[in-house]
User: Fold these one by one.
Assistant:
Number 1:
Amino acid sequence: MGKITGFMEVARQDLTSLPPEERVKTYSEFTIPLSLESVSTQGSRCMDCGIPFCQTGCPVNNIIPDWNDLVYKGQWQSALETLHSTNNFPEFTGRICPAPCEAACVLNINSDAVTIKNIEHTIIDHGWEQGWVKPQIAAQKTGKKVAVVGSGPSGLAAAQQLARAGHEVTVFEKNDRIGGLLRYGIPDFKMEKHLIDRRMEQMRAEGVSFKTNVHVGVNLSTDELLKDFDAVLLTGGSEHPRDLPVPGRELDGVHFAMSFLPQQNKRNAGDSVNNNILATGKHVVVIGGGDTGSDCVGTSIRQGAASVTQFELMPRPPEKENKPLVWPNYPMKMRTSSSQEEGCQRDWSVATKAFLGSNGKVEKLLAVRLDWQKNDQGQMVMKEVPGSEFEVKADLVLLAMGYLHPVHEGMLKDLNVGLDNRGNIAANTDNYKTSLDKVFAAGDMRRGQSLVVWAIREGRQAARAIDEYLMGSSTLPR
Ligand SMILES: Cc1cc2nc3c(=O)[nH]c(=O)nc-3n(C[C@H](O)[C@H](O)[C@H](O)COP(=O)(O)OP(=O)(O)OC[C@H]3O[C@@H](n4cnc5c(N)ncnc54)[C@H](O)[C@@H]3O)c2cc1C
Ligand code: SF4
């Protein structure tokens, strides 16, 4: 602990951002970095608690107190090594992680948490600027071949770990670019895509081979995959979206969020897009209040929507959490994302009854208000409020209500791999093994829709499990 009184002397300093009216003019990231000196001072607020709850709150168990201290002392390169020892891609999490670590920070009990996420962001960005991030090429090759299906954060973390253990790793991706939802889904204004390209260069130098436009189970058979590789890791994500089968669902202008968001990623990358779905000049209604819904809001605003409304089925959460009750867990409370800040009408306890339109095109949405009450078992149940139906203009409706499970058709059916009762691949976190010999699974494909940081954790742990399976033991971290 660098400065014993730091937490008493220094106030939390958050990142600032370009004002909404400025940032919506582009699809670029818009946070304004703090100086290294300011971040160093923020590091002094860490109390190096006897039990670092932040570290257990972080899914990759980042060794947060150690790098806070190193940053305070100006030892940025050591801080980077410590950070990389648990997290392959801190430039991703430092930008888009919801930071459960900060909810778990002991200072958060009666004061403001340490700015852990921004310290992480600064360590890695500074590390890249200084040229400290280098390929770590395995000293010896094992001669074993591993296939990773899916190039999201889980597949990439696993591939990097496995290559560093000396295996010959090939990543197969059905899309035309590597990155999974980091590339196609998460908007560029939250995370610019050159960050993925830079990591891919490092990974190529470490021996990872990337094959795009290969859809396993479609243009590459699962038999071939099993024949050609000593182990196979499935990290194909959770891509089956939750639908809203109400009258009018078939109308033109009602789309899944994931038909809309990747198109803008592609335009930003300079690609031309077929069957454009654009919010320009339209009254947009986003159904679903989570990350995906929020990304639809920010993207619609940048495209020049006439209005953006976001409906959430659940009731409006409390403004503040009851800390004695919920700390150190990530609390349910009212949050406003940067996209929502940019100008969107939000409404809670609203269900969609129908989409209305003419000539095959959506024009309005018919909604109803809900009353949520606890039943005898203490569960929240909803009832429609009689007479509360209302209509809103809607030329574009974006469905962002989450994902049910991975796509079963194709690869998973061909493999005939065992599924759990939610339709995800069944594999436990002791060894990430599926029901099939030499086939492993990790990330959203195994745990269901989740977070980038969980995907990285699972990728790292699955890599160790595969290394143990292939070699009998492993020196990769758990
Ligand atoms: C719009 C959106 C915004 C989000 N925002 C955030 C956020 O801000 N912060 C956060 O922490 N999390 C966020 N998430 C969640 C996060 O992106 C995911 O939890 C994470 O990307 C899961 O990683 P993964 O590697 O398991 O799968 P994915 O990232 O989904 O990658 C799976 C990859 O596998 C490929 N694939 C699938 N099947 C095959 C096949 N048969 N053959 C070849 N390739 C295949 C897919 O094309 C895809 O590229 C968001 C999710 C969405 C949809
Ligand atoms: S990865 Fe997320 S939870 Fe972990 S330290 Fe970074 S911001 Fe916190």
Note: The chain has 19 helices and 18 strands.
Number 2:
Amino acid sequence: MCDANMRHVCLISGGKDSTALAIYMMNRHPDINMEYVFCDTHKELPETYEFLMRIEAYLGRQIIRLSSDFGERGFDHYLRMYRGYLPSAQTRWCTRKLKIEPFEKYIGENQAFLYIGIRADEYREGYISTKPNIKPIFPFKDDGIVINDVFRILENSGVGLPNYYKWRTRSGCYFCFFQRKNEWVGLLENHPELFAMASQYEKPEEGYTWQAGESLQELMQPERIEIIKERSLKRLVDAAARRRPKNLIEAFTGEFTEAEGTDSCLICHL
Ligand code: SF4
């Protein structure tokens, strides 16, 4: 780890695990000259940008914002390139264009360790390097760090959780297609202007919607919202009952764990 030619890069997504990892590494290995990096799509939630400032205040270091929009090449540019075809779990051009390519360009041909915040109690692989000079490493997996440890690290540091956790389980673009239906409702209730912007990207008559089979205009109808909220509550109660939590906090952290399935973005939600 102390090879002077190696770069050490901690990718911060604006979520709890990558933030906890940045804090963990700084406290355990203050000798490592870590580069903290955030891939900015410029379509993130305001809460994420606020959280980044909190993380920077704790680390006492700037988080480097990487962006693909050199010369206007942001999300809207690529959407035009893809002829209005919205990204989806099956066609995830957004991750490649807005996150992976800027990140790999930033590393260039240097040898680098990439620190990834996947926990010991998770079953996902995260960013898979296609470049042999980028070596992913997983300190939380190696050290047996699980979700309750992550909450403890964030709480003890004073950084806490990002404010979007009140209504959404993941960081990422405000229009991210990985959102659950109740998270879209959360977007509508917390950021109606962003919900409206997400809706403007859709062309239901051509089959372009963020979620299969339902446009945001349909989802935002009061009777539909009521159904979504009821189902979400039922899922939460069922999940809590399965886990037999000792208290409400455990019930909610259980919901976080269950919500973080393998369908998350490989690089966006590290
Ligand atoms: S957060 Fe979602 S929409 Fe944004 S780049 Fe990642 S997968 Fe795509």
Note: Confidence is low (pLDDT under 50) at residues 245-264.
Number 3:
Amino acid sequence: MIPPLKEIVIVGGGSAGWMTAAALSSLLAPKDVTITLIESDEIGIVGVGEATIPDILNFNQMLGIDEADFIRATNATFKLGIEFIDWGRQGDRYIHPFSGHGVDMNGFDFHQFWLHSQTAGNSHPIDDYSLCAVAARHGKFVHPDPNPRSIRSHIRYAYHFDASLYARYLRTYAEKRGVRRIEGKIKAVVQAPETGHITELKLEDGQSVAGEFFFDCSGFRSLLLGQTLGIGYVDWSHWLPCNTAQAVPSSHTGPLIPYTRATAKTSGWQWRIPTQTRTGNGHIYCRDFMSDDEAASVLLSGLDGEALASPRVIRFTTGHRQAFWDKNCIAIGLSAGFLEPLESTSIYLIQEGVSRFISLFPNASLPNVFRDEYNRHMRTEFEQVRDFIILHYAATERADSPFWNYCRNMSIPDTLKHKIALFREGGRAFRHEDELFSRPSWVAVFLGQNINPRAYDPVVANLPPADVMASVESMREAMIDAVRQMPTHEAYLAKYRIPRAG
Ligand SMILES: Cc1cc2nc3c(=O)[nH]c(=O)nc-3n(C[C@H](O)[C@H](O)[C@H](O)COP(=O)(O)OP(=O)(O)OC[C@H]3O[C@@H](n4cnc5c(N)ncnc54)[C@H](O)[C@@H]3O)c2cc1C
């Protein structure tokens, strides 16, 4: 009998480390297994990462987390999608909503009917047919109705939250389930001479922590997988040239919006994310096209409220490690790779890494085939998200700055070229291999970025325009009606918020 893994060590106490610790402690309920997490207060955590996508609900549910408790503890607000401003052309505005558009009819995608109605004079944008997009525009929110016949059952949502508070919340969760936390800075990593496997971590204060399997959640440093095991980096900067972020919180002005806002700037873009107590802001840009000083002034001049700190600069290189799992070590979080937060996917990729490891949970023999499957899966996940993010940059008509000229003319991956061609020729969009973003997401961004199909489904094209117009219009009215009856996001959230003094 091959023995099970008995000693698991996690390096890092950011979102990645504590999400890993929480999930493993929930699964293993440590009895025969020890789970130890090491984090350094001196190094700290990156502390950004405020916007999520609906998959976070599955993660929290898997842990058995009470939603109201979580919302209070992390200062969370609800999120129905992302609004993109000035991306395709200056003055453009569209929402990538978490719910689809309209209702598919007789086996045909809704957007085919919408395309037909456009030729018959319908001037409503596709956004007007998504419940989440319409609710977002009106500042409304409600939980999905469990009755599948109700139009409100189409609501899909995620959260905006304080990433540091989320890590703290999961720390309490994991410690209650037996995870041992050690505070201290790792100064040396010991490897077995014959295999190169990691065996022990030596801390500056003289402690030493032995383990059989190690999770590298050490952030951009990639202390174990990158620095110790020497796994190289696949650099995607030629497709996603932004390499710096500046982040700053600001005070609230106006009601809390239930969506993330991503506004394109001359050399990148700026995010605006409302949590209960403040607005998170950040400017992502490429230093080849804009200096840090200029980027800071763009950021500060784009705030709605008063800045609550000085902007913090964070450098990054878009891409991922050549392998995510090598020997007895898996990297999760920033140590595994980074894709800029345009579609709020990093926390999802952490979740996916942990879940895939759990579904492949190895015994102490660590079969290579498990490692290979994990690496294949995570590489595919990263590449699929990458293509979706590149689409926002490449499908632009902006010619107002060297940065946008570069993006408009850059080469793109063949996988993305193929998707764009399918949509351009006939409005066709498919979900490939269970990829994260499904058809409605691709359709929202294709159309939002002005990729208009040359033709649409010939069967739908043969339907009488007046009939199509009538069904499409009835769906639009149903959306507006449903949203009219929803409470405002602010009012809905009030029941979750802890009253604050003053
Ligand atoms: C600008 C920006 C914006 C982002 N926005 C979003 C977003 O909106 N949505 C989203 O999903 N994600 C977002 N992310 C990503 C998100 O922030 C990260 O994926 C997430 O916070 C995980 O970080 P981490 O835990 O991997 O690393 P970190 O938070 O950096 O944690 C690293 C940990 O390793 C420890 N450590 C490192 N070296 C040592 C050592 N030698 N000894 C002991 N401990 C050590 C540190 O103390 C720390 O605890 C964003 C990232 C950036 C850079």
Note: The pocket of flavin-adenine dinucleotide is lined by residues 11-17, 38-40, 43-46, 48-52, 163, 185-186, 217-219, 221, 223, 245, 247, 282, 314, 316, 333-335, 341, 344, 346-347, 350 (CB under 6 Å).
